[in-house]
Amino acid sequence: MSVKQFIEKDKDRLLEELMALLRIPSVSADSAYKKDMLSAAEFLKIKLLEAGVDSVEICPTAGHPIVYAEKIMDPSWPTVLVYGHYDVQPPDPIELWESGPFEPIIKTTDRHPEGAIFARGACDDKGQMYMHVKAFEYMMREQKMYCNIKFMLEGEEEVGSPNLGPFMRENQERLACDVILISDTSMLGNESPSMTSGLRGLSYVEVEVTGPNRDLHSGTYGGAVANPINILAKMIASLQDEEGRITVEGFYDDVLEVSAEEREAMAKAPFDLADYKAKLGIDDVSGEAGFSTMERASIRPTLDVNGIWGGYIGEGAKTVLPSKAYAKISMRLVPNQSSEQITALFKKHFEALAPASVKVVVTPHHGGEPVLTPTDGIEFQAAAKAYEQTFGKRPIPLRAGGSIPIVALFEEILGAKTVMMGFGLDTDAIHSPNEHFGVFNYFKGIETLPYFYEHFRAMKEA
Amino acid sequence: MSVKQFIEKDKDRLLEELMALLRIPSVSADSAYKKDMLSAAEFLKIKLLEAGVDSVEICPTAGHPIVYAEKIMDPSWPTVLVYGHYDVQPPDPIELWESGPFEPIIKTTDRHPEGAIFARGACDDKGQMYMHVKAFEYMMREQKMYCNIKFMLEGEEEVGSPNLGPFMRENQERLACDVILISDTSMLGNESPSMTSGLRGLSYVEVEVTGPNRDLHSGTYGGAVANPINILAKMIASLQDEEGRITVEGFYDDVLEVSAEEREAMAKAPFDLADYKAKLGIDDVSGEAGFSTMERASIRPTLDVNGIWGGYIGEGAKTVLPSKAYAKISMRLVPNQSSEQITALFKKHFEALAPASVKVVVTPHHGGEPVLTPTDGIEFQAAAKAYEQTFGKRPIPLRAGGSIPIVALFEEILGAKTVMMGFGLDTDAIHSPNEHFGVFNYFKGIETLPYFYEHFRAMKEA
């Protein structure tokens, strides 16, 4: 039967399996969920075995385990390594969810008239990862396998994949492949397929500003002693000038300017600014002068304060001049900025900003390199052809705003390119409350993926 | 017997009674402690009756009750109204206390070689308030009463005394007095008595900045959508210029410049900048250009961010572009700034600072007017004479940095001046962890207060 028939016949089961996976609160950032991480790994192991892999191993790491499985049809065939992650973002703030983050429910929305599954991880990344398991099940059942397939499903993507690099280095032979396939990105729309041809990098730091050695009474000391919150605000404010450019010394040195032609091509992608603002409830967008909204969110580097706290933040008023103020700051990077270099530049710049009246500590978190996938390569071409078959139009190549730090690692350690076949939508609210994934999108992914393998094999042997 | 003999003979009891009061966690800001508020009021009622008042009433209000007591010796005598508060600041952050905030313990320190009582409220205001109850007990026992005494002890000073004004307006006749006496301020040192001749006012607001209508993924949207934390930082940073002056339009219009002569007199107070910095663990002080450290903390208005929060502030990294950012901001005011006017000016200025990409809401909290006590008035003179008797030197008149908002109310509603006889030290860490009050200071207050009544009566009848 065709893959569409397969989906139609088994659609309830296909949805119920995904929902069972979504019920497991596999939050990697919080050690309280350690047991659930194992449960999710075990679930995947069982499903992969049922789908027909030769073997599955739950590989322990210093953190959460990596689920590794393979189906080798023929050593002479090309090998595709499917990467996904079974861990999810923390669900907070929970009070903003309309249904439980780990109680998946299908509801219809404007952009998902056929319904969407609402749960933390529905889109990022369980729904998109599980499409691959079901596509594999189909190909095995209908004997439509064209490539060897290896699955590498980790549990720490949301916390920076600290153990993935070491795992890949220790298992280079086992993981040998011709291409890595990932579904953890989005498309422009259900009528406007697009593929991510580039990812931004990430630099993430935590800063701590200390003034006096204890909290002080703001009457007794206010005006005479530097307030670390006021100072931190000044330091953060100075990081961006009036043109929206980041002032960290050397920040833009390695940025590859995008050609006028490519910018023109990107500008052809459908984008409705009024709708964009209306959906976000904002009166105005804001960013680097000289670039459009879509460009600011994809081809330009950025700086965002992800969290800030200090002083008294409870109920009512407290007149304290606090000892400390903190912030979590991250920067999205573009080719050819280097995450390590940018982090070092930021640290140096920020520490130098501090007046003598305070002390500053900058602590780096995990980062990731920016990535570019050549649109003329067979990896991209095979995928584009698959989308064209199931959507009726070629996907527009777009550079994404987000980061998947391990993609740069793949090329470095395994020597293969990555192709990103995403089926989510930007409005699926990943990392936010009420995250969801369209039923249409889930099934479209299962339908599209088998064509990728077919075309990749054909193009490789051509 | 003399008051010193009284103190010596009963010193253990005098300390134990205060410690019993300190054990009651009478935190007014937190409704969880409502029962303890009543316990503290009941405790005071009993002690006042035992000391010899004619009557005590625990007067209900819309919030915590006011303890009102009186001892009328002779209607023709002057009447002193003693004000104090039995509520205390919240104890957090609790982890920074070396002993329990409500488990009073006496420990010696460099500045308190005779020991200090460590507990929340030891200095602000239970220790200083209770000195008055014990001084009264002494004067009654030894028949050394010179004035009628009325006690008005409230339970909401730390939350802005919202019900005190109404209480005073409803009880104007009952509260009729010639002077109000308060002990809720500090002296320069145990060898350097000083008296507060002025208080700063207070304006307190909470601000909320909203960007997008939900938390966003900072990769998908970062760089294209205004981040309310970044915006809030810019807005706060702009509130003070490089000279340390506040930029709110109209802010300084009503400030009475302090004369060169008065500044010279203030500069005579002993102040060791190196010691000040060393005790606070800072390498540099910081404030308005053209003013000394002590001036910045007393005769100049200020702006401090007391709390700030927004985005992800938990463990690890989360790449969120948050929907909202918040801050609690307060300003200390000097004569003749008006709290209501400054709050209105701030609100107008801050709202106008907001770019079109965010929405700002400014919510005022309680405030208070600045105050000046004439040093040539008999209130001040009687108190200064009392200090001279027990310390061996006249107290230096100093303007305090902190606010006691209801002092301005007293003059307005009761038509009498307030004299502030403080016995705490700036290093007693009020509003901070490990708050304490010297045993020397507690006993010195009890010793000094009876002389005030004697001199006030004499000066009034002269």
UniProtKB/TrEMBL annotation, chains A, B:
Keyword Membrane appears in the UniProt entry: no
A Pfam family this chain is assigned to: Peptidase_M20
Entry annotated with the keyword Transcription regulation: no
Matches recorded under SUPFAM superfamilies: Zn-dependent exopeptidases (SSF53187)
Gene Ontology annotations of biological process type: proteolysis
Start and end residues of each Peptidase M20 dimerisation domain: 199-356
Protein keywords: Hydrolase, Metal-binding, Protease
One function term, GO molecular function aspect: metal ion binding
NCBIfam families: PRK07907.1 (NF005914), PRK08201.1 (NF006053), PRK09104.1 (NF006579)
PANTHER family: BETA-ALA-HIS DIPEPTIDASE, SUCCINYL-DIAMINOPIMELATE DESUCCINYLASE
Protein name: M20/M25/M40 family peptidase
Lineage summary: Bacteria, Pseudomonadati, Bacteroidota, Saprospiria, Saprospirales
